[in-house]
Amino acid sequence: MRERSMRIESASVEVLKIPVGDAYQAAGRPVDANWHVLARVRTSDGVEGVGYIVQPRGDFMRTIASGAAELAEHLVGMDVRDTEAAWQSLARRANWVGPGGLLHWSLAPLDIAIWDALGKTLGQPIFRMLGCYCHKVVAYASDRMWYSVPVDDLQKSIREYTDAGYDGVKLRLSHTAPAAEQAERVRHAKDAAGPDVTVMVDATEGWSYTQAVEAGRVLQEAGAGWLEDPIDHQDYIGLGKLRDMFDMPVTGGEHYYTLAQTRECLEARALDVIILDLARVGGITPWRKMAALGEAYNVPVCGHVVPEVHVHLLASVPVGDMVEYMPRSTEILQNMPEPSGGMMAPLDAPGHGLMLDEGAVTRFRL
Ligand SMILES: [Mg+2]
């Protein structure tokens, strides 16, 4: 293969705002759109790699895009095979505003776009390039079960998910509602889900330690089978105590930015399952290292949202646990993959395999 074909010739970044059909409340905030920062890198052979981050909020998304565009200029001339060199050079350039934070959010879409371009250049899917471990990953359903959704609609969503073959569904909890009310909601969810389906709950860091103890007890009694983000992710001691207190797994991790934070959390034995956020960690290149740490500490690894890309990563590690099926980019893709029978397979096509719907991208571009 000619060396020239591997070089990045240009890169670009855009911001998209995709309205959601039914507005809802997430972690105490109203959500009416999914915002994307979409990055593209093009090689001199005309291969285009695509990467994006998505947030159900608009705050700082233009700032992140602006940071990504600035970093992208420095990718020109780099070889798409040099994924680690590209990540490190961009991170070093802007490390005075990092590590983590906006720097990682700006890096992530570029890193994903480079991996996609590399896959397209080599004719290999990302899960193959990373070293395939399995061809399917367990998926759980996570959409349309917000606390603001009325109980009847919640039960309807759950029945649809269980009919589709999911073995797990995840409800968002409230930061302020009484623990008994939240436990009642879990009972309604269990009624709809049936005995064989795990009802998971996510408290989105809304509680104090004391609230978490009180709520955790009644939620466990009500049949919750997974308690996510009960308290601040930096309170490793508190998380570890909750983990000892409850039979249900205490999970979290989507708020960690760095390898060092991930190590601290695992060293403290704070969580039963660690959930990695592809965007917050800064893309695929650092994600793999964090997953390896999970393996070293014998802690299963999940992916936070973006299932269409996370499924490639989870399929490439022996500790890959579950993919969170929360599709937020269906509208801009021609081929959003879906789980079948509760399992999700990565697209078996070069790169991540996702094809943009350019008409939709134009429509939603700011
Ligand atoms: Mg969560």
Features:
single chain; 366 residues; alpha/beta; Enolase-like, domain 1; TIM Barrel; 2 domains; 12 strands; binds magnesium ion
Query: How far is the N terminus from the C terminus?
Result: 38 Å
Biggest sheet strand order reads: 5-6-7-8-9-10-11-4-12
Q: Assembly type of the shown chains? A: single chain
Series of H and E elements: EEEHHHHEHEHEHEHEHEHEHEEH
Number of helices: 12
Task: Give every kind of bound small molecule, once each.
Answer: magnesium ion
CATH architecture of the largest domain: Alpha-Beta Barrel
Q: Approximately what portion of the residues adopt beta-strand conformation?
A: 15-25%
Helicity range: 25-40%
Report the sheet with the most strands, covering strand number, pairing sense and barrel closure: 9 strands, mixed
Shape, per Cα inertia axes: globular
What structural class is derived from the secondary structure elements?
alpha/beta
What is CATH's topology name of the largest domain? Answer: TIM Barrel
> What is the class of the largest domain in the CATH system?
Alpha Beta
Low-confidence stretches: none
Rounded to the nearest angstrom, the radius of gyration is 20 Å
Describe the structure in your own words:
This protein is of the alpha/beta class and 366 residues long. It folds into 2 domains: 8-123 and 359-364, Enolase-like, domain 1, CATH 3.30.390; 128-356, Enolase-like C-terminal domain (TIM Barrel, Alpha-Beta Barrel). Helices cover 38% and strands 21% of the residues. The protein is built from 12 helices and 12 strands. The chain has helices spanning 61-72, 83-93, 101-122, 126-129, 151-163, 179-193, 209-222, 236-245, 259-267, 284-296, 307-314, 358-364; strands spanning 8-26, 29-43, 48-55, 137-141, 168-172, 198-202, 227-228, 250-252, 273-276, 301-303, 320-325, 343-344. The protein has a 9-stranded mixed β-sheet with strand order 5-6-7-8-9-10-11-4-12. It has a 3-stranded antiparallel β-sheet with strand order 1-2-3. Helix 11 (307-314) links the parallel strand 10 and strand 11.
